[in-house]
Hints:
- The structure is a single chain.
- By secondary structure, this protein is an alpha/beta fold.
- The chain has one domain (8-191, 220-244): NAD(P)-binding Rossmann-like Domain (Rossmann fold, 3-Layer(aba) Sandwich).
- It contains eight helices and seven strands, in the order E-H-E-H-E-H-E-H-E-H-E-H-H-H-E.
- It has helices at residues 17-28, 40-52, 67-81, 105-133, 155-175, 193-198, 202-210, 220-231; strands at residues 8-12, 32-37, 56-61, 86-89, 136-141, 180-187, 242-245.
- Helix 4 (105-133) links the parallel strand 4 and strand 5 (136-141).
- Helix 1 (17-28) packs across helix 8 (220-231) and helix 3 runs parallel beside helix 4 (105-133).
- The longest helix is centred in the middle third of the chain and has 29 residues, at 105-133.
- Bound molecules: NADPH dihydro-nicotinamide-adenine-dinucleotide phosphate.
- NADPH dihydro-nicotinamide-adenine-dinucleotide phosphate (NDP) binds at residues 13-19, 37-39, 42, 63-65, 90-93, 114, 141, 143, 187, 189-190, 192-195.
- NADPH dihydro-nicotinamide-adenine-dinucleotide phosphate (NDP) binds next to helix 1 and helix 6.
Amino acid sequence: MTALTNKVAIVAGASSGIGYATAKLFAREGAKVVVGARRHAKLNALVAEIAAAGGEAVALAGDVTEEDYAKALVDTATERFGGLDVAFNNVGILGPMGSTTEVSLSDWRNAVDTNLTSAFLGAKYQVPAMVARGGGSLIFTSTFVGHTVGFPGLATYAASKSGLIGLTQALAVEFGQQGVRVNAILPGGTDTEMYREMNTTQEARDFIVSLYPFRRIASPEEIANSVLYLASDASSFTTGSALQVEGGVSINRT
Ligand code: NDP
């Protein structure tokens, strides 16, 4: 038996980074996985990689800000694999960076739609599918930014991501009696496209690394291991939590 034997999972934001690593790990642990994001080619490559390793996955490309896509991901899980047990709602963008007084309303709305409204839409369709199975595990990707640490120039990201923690708590108490667990994971700096987009110079990367007790950031695979914990029965008494997997950046003062 592996951690997700006989489970069906959705991983949204699976075309790169943390989502890509998590989808591969879920499949290796026995789950049948529906992988979502906008880039078809990257998703197809992921499905091929999972199949080559003996796993099972199906790709459905789309934009998580659209309600029809949120529903279609759940329909695909149900029609192809018979139901839904785990949903990793991992999509995120940095959104506008820089002085908050210079942020345009449309950039703000786009980031809030992508980071927060997408999670509401995901849960709206995922929860009933899980309740129909007698329970399940929902996971949102938040961040320490805006939760334990304030960073200048990241207000849109911080506000939209910390909103996920409120959503996590509300859903956890609303659907706990129906067997649905809801948790947020709060990664620290992780070596992905997003991290590289934010830290383009060696100087910036050296500064970021200096904030961590380990003097390094995480690999996507390290974050995926903690997502697997929240997805699996190993965390059966954990709900409504904001699990920090941030390498101690929040408490480091050196
Ligand atoms: P990536 O940029 O590699 O991954 C982001 C994923 O989201 C991609 O698969 C992207 O795919 C998808 N995505 C973005 N917008 C949409 C959309 N509108 N509809 C569907 N899919 C979308 O970055 P990470 O792996 O780093 O990020 C994963 C999560 O981790 C994010 O929520 C991020 O905020 C969070 N995080 C990351 C940290 C880091 O240091 N890297 C630290 C803390 C949290 P596509 O472009 O194909 O649509």
